[in-house]
Amino acid sequence: MTSPDILVGCHGVARTYGVGAAAVVAVHGATCEVRSGDRIAITGPSGSGKSTLLHLMAALEEPTTGRVTWPGLARGPVPDQVGVVFQGPSLIPALDVVENTALPLVLAGHREEPARRRALDCLALVIATGLADKLPEELSGGQAQRVAVARALAAAPRLILADEPTGQLDRATGRHVVDVLLATADTLGAALVLTTHDPTVARRLTLQWSMDNGRLRTEPQPPWEPAAAGPHEATP
């Protein structure tokens, strides 16, 4: 692969929160590359560093050590190059659903009316057109997650990073959202990296990476299943 085919590369990346005895290492020396057309599922338990790794790839956080590069993104990790679906609430409370969805386009300099039309098209993909005029406070968790997916796709990014995109959805809706992510990535020629606890979702992507205690494994993985709860453990 030539450098332009590599959309993002992590080179010995680590991320530590806090200092001294209270320091927590969320990611330990991760090295990986995401190339054009990749379909990657990152699996692992809660707290294993999956979300932090995606945030590093999106330049939402800076590594404590190591470096992240974006050789295949002409203008770097900006909103119309990298679309991010966050695990937690991420919609802007003062904006309605269509305004939230159009935001990456507006930030990239698109005019308001074309941005609105594109936002409505993306909301239709996730079956959320009827939510267009609602404020985030009027949405359920699952509805807000679908809007977040539409927003990530609105600017036709080259790299889509989705953090537990089906986590708040019922199985049928989750399956549809993964369909949309995969189909849109195919249409755009984009790479898709998602984190998931769901082995059914993970198996739909070509590559499976895993994280455990902040350590990334990128070599071929067997079909992933969550660990069974022990006699004194609760199943997540």
From TrEMBL:
Signal peptide: none annotated. Residues 8-236 form the ABC transporter domain. Transmembrane segments: none annotated. SMART domains: AAA. Pfam families: ABC_tran (PF00005). Keywords: ATP-binding, Nucleotide-binding. One of its GO terms (molecular function) is ATP binding. Residues 212-236 are annotated as: Disordered. This is ABC transporter ATP-binding protein.
